[in-house]
Design brief:
By secondary structure, the chain is of the alpha/beta class. The protein has ten helices and eight strands.
Length: 285
């Protein structure tokens, strides 16, 4: 993957050096989306909530990046810039205007506007309340060492997936799915959550399809394979098998490895934003 020299977004907010974390506020759509959409890596929401600390985050001293963190900051800036270039063009082609999102980089815990306090334990997440993506750079090590998703494109896929949630928010999808929550059982809503996550995977694939057209980032077939491996690594079935030794399909919230790979690849193959209506995929019902 060739990304050095690519256009930087500049829409990066560095909140590293903050510490602590107030218990996550779950009021309204913001808190719900952090739980349902923000758990990119899957997992038990109750278990994750138990990891939230009790003290509010506060400003710390100046954060000194390691060489690797500085490289990852540069990488994330360029990837975010490429998503802006791609989605601005796609939106324009459909007669829409694309409002950019901000990527907030933090470590440990971070206070959001509308989604309470997020924690690294949640993994990367998107907060519709402030239309920002939140990422702890240490997650890159988890991708490789814990989930076996190796290669630079794995992190690019994660960022593009969260931008996919931003697309859903802009188009009103997240509001619609949140409105369904009070009308459904947990089991029924889990299916809606899966469809939501798979659509974000699809949008990540659409971005990968158009990168060569709208930016100077160069992807190889091996990069796309890395993306599919990353999608497979975070499938609900794979994660549950790793953690519990068995799977419970009724508790899936993000989709199986096969489903995640399928929708990412469909986005990459078609490059068509209108081909990703996961909510009408009868195989997911």
């Amino acid at each position: 993957m060739k990304w050095q020299g690519g256009r930087r977004s500049g829409n990066i907010e560095d909140k590293r050096g903050m510490s602590g974390g107030q218990k996550l506020t779950l009021g309204g759509i913001g808190g719900i989306i952090v739980l349902i959409v923000g758990f990119l890596m899957g997992g038990d929401p109750e278990q994750l909530l138990n990891q939230v600390q009790q003290t509010a985050p506060k400003e710390g001293g100046v954060y000194e990046s390691t060489e690797e963190e500085s490289r990852l900051m540069d990488f994330a800036d360029v990837i975010l810039g490429s998503t802006e270039d791609v989605w601005k063009n796609i939106f324009a082609a459909n007669g829409w205007s694309y409002p950019v999102t901000t990527l907030t980089v933090y470590n440990g815990a971070v206070e959001t506007a509308g989604c309470g306090v997020g924690q690294s334990a949640f993994g990367p997440f998107y907060c519709p309340g402030d239309q920002k993506i939140y990422l702890d750079l240490s997650f890159n090590d988890e991708l490789s060492n814990k989930y076996g998703a190796k290669g630079e494109f794995a992190l690019a896929y994660v960022i593009a997936h969260e931008v996919g949630h931003h697309i859903q928010n802009v188009l009103g999808v997240l509001q619609q799915t949140n409105d369904m929550r009070s009308k459904m059982s947990e089991r029924e809503y889990n299916k809606i959550s899966v469809m939501t996550e798979l659509q974000a995977d699809f949008y990540a694939g659409v971005w990968a399809h158009h990168v060569k057209n709208y930016s100077n980032i160069e992807l190889t077939y091996d990069d796309i394979v890395d993306g599919m491996r990353a999608a497979a690594a975070v499938g609900d079935d794979h994660l549950q098998e790793q953690v519990h030794g068995h799977i419970n399909p009724e508790s899936f919230t993000h989709g199986t490895s096969e489903q995640r790979v399928h929708w990412f690849k469909k986005g990459y193959d078609t490059g068509d934003i209108n081909a990703g209506n996961t909510f009408e995929d009868t195989s997911l019902e």
